[in-house]
Write a structure and sequence with these properties.
The complex is a heterodimer. By secondary structure, chain A is an alpha+beta fold. Helices cover 52% and strands 16% of the residues of chain A. A 4-stranded antiparallel sheet of chain A has the order 2-3-7-6, with no helix packed on it. In chain A, a hairpin with a 2-residue loop joins β4 (165-173) and β5. The longest helix of chain A has 36 residues, at 225-260. Chain B contains 12 helices and 8 strands. Chain B has helices spanning 7-22, 26-33, 40-53, 71-83, 91-104, 107-118, 233-243, 251-266, 279-307, 319-338, 364-373, 384-396; strands at residues 124-127, 143-147, 150-157, 168-174, 185-191, 197-203, 209-222, 226-227. The A-B interface holds A 1-6, 9, 69, 255, 258-259, 269-270, 272, 275-276, 278-280, 282-283, 286-291, 293-294, 296-297, 300-301, 303, 313, 316-317, 365, 368-369, 372-373, 375 and B 1-5, 72, 262, 265-266, 276-277, 279, 282-283, 285-287, 289-291, 293-298, 300-301, 303-305, 307-308, 314-315, 318, 321-322, 385, 388-389, 391-392, 395-398.
């Protein structure tokens, strides 16, 4: 039993911290968020050089064979800077899905391109408000010999507007799902782009009789349901790590603020009612971190814990902890907490949006309850 | 980052499991099988079986007859004990006064007291709280006045768990009224058979006698029963509180209790309503599992630091708060499962091998008394509110 980071994990953490400290202060981040693309292409190329874009891929595709633990370490640190680059969409969702589902030639072409920073890919998968159940999608893929016709609507696809390629999940029959590589430039593809509440980018993607070659299907025709479920678990770890990084930073910011802010002729940190609220934040941050470790370790090792259950446990805990920590941080910052000028409010926004990604607290609690009822 | 056990640790786990399956004294297994509480005799039998196995001093260093176990081994031991539903170890001798004596006592005290603590030949109780010194323990007033080779002790201690079983009591007493109140406190060992010691029961909400008041009236205590230096008792007492926090969260026992709850939901015993479709209850069950899983990993994080020779991180400070919250959430679930069968008050069915009345489902009449009694866990050992004050000061620095 050992919870210490390996040397490689420490290096990853250090390089991510350096990047955030040097290039990602709050003002710089806000400027990037307000720019046309909403992120920096220069940073993206740096990520490629640092190996981050290759982190979860197998060695033979230029990857670093990183597990969920390495992903966690990187995302927690980048999360503290409120990262805007499409790491989650290109590497965690799309890259992992290509790795799990793709055939040899798809993997060698696309994983290498992603790792090198040459291509970005967006995952147009889920269609319902809660991104937990891929089997409920209605986008259809009609296969006619060598060609496939796709029709459907994919709401809120992260970073679809900057993607070189879309991975579209579609029903090939009532209970079979395929994932198809579709260029956003393909005729019949419409992208309605917008910024998101947390300063990021997303788009609604509409596919109207989009025709692609049958070769565009990832893999050799197998049902993609399980692979998507497993990638969803990785994505849960990634955003939960971001959330833990943010929560810790918000706790520290809140403690610092209450030490400096004076009312009734004394620092408000002297008031026991505020001290106990901050302790409640601290308890939740530590419990959230422990739960994150449980999830990352369970996904990395074959320890008998089912990936879907682990992901639900993690996301449920992160959801409830984020709400308490986020809301209390804003409350204790008083009026300043609800202004755009302070970073705490922006961390609160991101935490809130993380809860909506890949299944909220309530959605995962519901999944846990139903799984237990079916046991 | 991993939670894997080594080959040696797995072998150790097997050895511990086999002990609990095959080597418990007959008086203990008989009561366990019948669902009865331990009485004083079976409790002592249990602790003496651990002693004979060499496992009594779980936290003790080898030089004083302890196991010298690693943090991971202790974790394994407590998990296996919970799995076997073994009795708890009464902490006052083995986990509390023992470590104080081997850390701060003189050689004569070590030779005199440690062997009987280890072998559970002598039953110890704790004299800290007083009627007017609870959370503000340092304001304690029980006085020990030096008179030749003795201290003369006068005062009252309260919440003395199983004081009516005890042969000896370790007390924080006031030896000075000047200066800081913490600096006038000393750590004194008192024979419960001394003239002037009276033990009176306090009956708790479960109708049972677990705690007591202990009165001291001109009790003569030889000065050689003072541990360490006069005026240092507060420091020793605090060391005792932080000395060994393994198992403070009670994770292993809570895991076993959650397993039992899920078992009853999956296969309701006669009388237990089929509640699995009640999504409100199920939400509480799963929320408890989520918190408990996180708590287990918090504990593992602490163990991992300790076993690699580092000081436990700030996360260790939440173990008591979260652990007790989970315990009480489980109490509420048992109460819900018992339903109306939780109304009868028949404590004798958990004490007597042949009770006049034995109600089914057997666990149900104990659900409410246990729930009432267990409100204590967020109160004792420093209330959870006091724990928050400590975290605010020591961890957050506010």
């Amino acid at each position: 039993m050992d919870f210490a980071l390996t040397d490689i994990q420490e290096m990853l953490k250090d390089s991510a911290s350096k990047f955030i400290n040097n290039a990602y202060d709050f003002d710089a981040r806000q400027k990037l968020s307000a720019s046309d693309t909403g992120y920096s292409e220069e940073h993206w190329q740096l990520f490629a050089e640092l190996g981050w874009l290759a982190l979860p891929f197998e060695d033979q595709y230029g990857g670093l064979d990183g597990t969920a633990v390495e992903l966690m370490v990187l995302m927690e640190t980048l999360g503290k800077g409120l990262l805007l680059e499409p790491y989650l969409s290109t590497v965690v969702l799309s890259g992992n899905l290509i790795q799990r589902l793709g055939n040899e030639s798809q993997k060698s072409e696309w994983l290498t391109a992603i790792a090198g920073g040459e291509k970005k890919v967006a995952f147009a998968g889920f269609e319902t408000a809660s991104q937990t159940d891929i089997t409920s999608i209605t986008t259809r893929a009609e296969i006619n010999g060598d060609s496939v016709k796709l029709t459907g609507k994919k709401p809120v696809v992260l970073h679809a507007q900057s993607a070189d390629m879309l991975l579209v999940a579609a029903k090939t029959s009532d209970d079979d799902i395929g994932v198809f590589m579709v260029s956003p430039k393909e005729s019949g593809v419409t992208i309605a782009a917008y910024p998101t509440n947390d300063g990021g980018r997303a788009a609604d993607v509409t596919l109207n009789n989009v025709t692609v070659s049958a070769d565009a299907r990832l893999g050799e025709g197998e049902n993609a349901t399980d692979a998507i479920g497993r990638v969803l678990a990785d994505a849960v770890i990634a955003v939960s790590a971001e959330a833990v990084g943010l929560m810790e930073k918000m706790l520290n910011a809140t403690v610092e603020y209450t030490r400096v802010r004076k009312q009734f002729d004394m620092p408000i940190a002297r008031f026991q009612v505020l001290q106990h609220k901050m302790v409640d934040m601290f308890v939740e941050v530590e419990q959230a971190r422990s739960m994150l470790y449980y999830g990352a370790i369970s996904l990395s090792a074959d320890n008998g814990v089912d990936a879907a259950k682990a992901a639900s446990m993690v996301k449920a805990k992160i959801g409830s902890a984020s709400r308490l920590v986020g809301q209390t941080a804003v409350q204790l910052h008083g009026g300043m907490g609800v202004t755009e000028e302070l970073d705490v409010g922006h961390m609160f926004k991101r935490l809130t949006m993380i809860n909506t990604l890949f299944g909220s607290h309530d959605a995962h609690m519901d999944a846990l309850i139903k799984a237990e009822q079916a046991a | 980052m991993n939670t894997d056990f080594t080959e040696q640790e797995l072998a150790f786990q097997n050895e511990v499991r086999s002990f609990f399956e095959n080597e418990l004294p007959e008086s203990v297994t008989r009561r366990l099988k019948a669902g009865l509480r331990m009485d004083k005799a079976s409790q002592v039998d249990y602790q003496q079986a651990l002693y004979e196995k060499g496992w009594a001093g779980i936290n003790w260093p080898v030089e004083y007859g302890g196991t010298g176990w690693s943090a991971t081994q202790r974790y394994i031991f407590f998990n296996e004990a919970a799995r076997a539903k073994a009795p708890r170890i009464i902490p006052f001798g083995l986990n509390m006064v023992g470590p104080v004596i081997y850390t701060f006592g003189n050689d004569e005290q070590k030779q005199r007291f440690l062997p009987d603590i280890l072998s559970s030949k002598v039953w110890w109780c704790q004299g800290y709280s007083e009627p007017n010194a609870g959370s503000d323990l340092a304001s304690l007033k029980t006085k020990a006045v030096r008179d030749g080779d003795n201290y003369i002790v006068n005062g009252v201690k309260t919440w003395t768990t199983l004081g009516h079983y005890a042969d000896w009591i370790f007390c924080l007493v006031r030896t000075s009224d000047t200066g800081k109140k913490q600096e006038g406190i000393s750590f004194l060992l008192i024979d419960m058979n001394s003239p002037g010691v009276t033990v009176k029961p306090i009956i708790t909400l479960d109708g049972r006698r677990e705690v007591n008041e202990v009165f001291f009236e001109d009790v003569k205590v030889p000065v050689e029963n003072l541990v360490g230096e006069e005026g240092k008792g507060w420091t020793y007492g605090k060391v005792l509180l932080t000395h060994e926090r393994s198992n403070i969260a009670g994770v292993a026992t809570s895991k076993q209790r959650l397993t039992d709850i899920k078992g009853m939901l999956n296969n309701p015993p006669a009388g237990v309503p089929p509640l699995k479709d009640n999504s409100v209850l199920m939400q509480r069950v799963m929320q408890t599992e989520v918190e408990l899983t996180a708590l287990e990993y918090t504990e593992l994080r602490v163990l991992s630091s300790v076993s690699t020779g580092k000081a436990p991180g700030p996360e260790s400070s939440i173990l008591k708060i979260k652990g007790t919250e989970v315990q009480q959430a489980l109490d509420e679930l048992f109460l819900e499962l018992a339903g109306i069968y939780g109304l009868p008050f028949v404590p004798e069915q958990y004490d007597d091998e042949d009770p006049s009345l034995k109600l089914e489902p057997f666990f149900a009449p104990n659900a409410a008394p246990h729930y009432y009694n267990n409100r204590k866990v967020t109160i004792y050992g420093g209330t959870n509110e006091i724990q928050k004050n400590i975290i605010a000061k020591q961890v957050l620095g506010v």
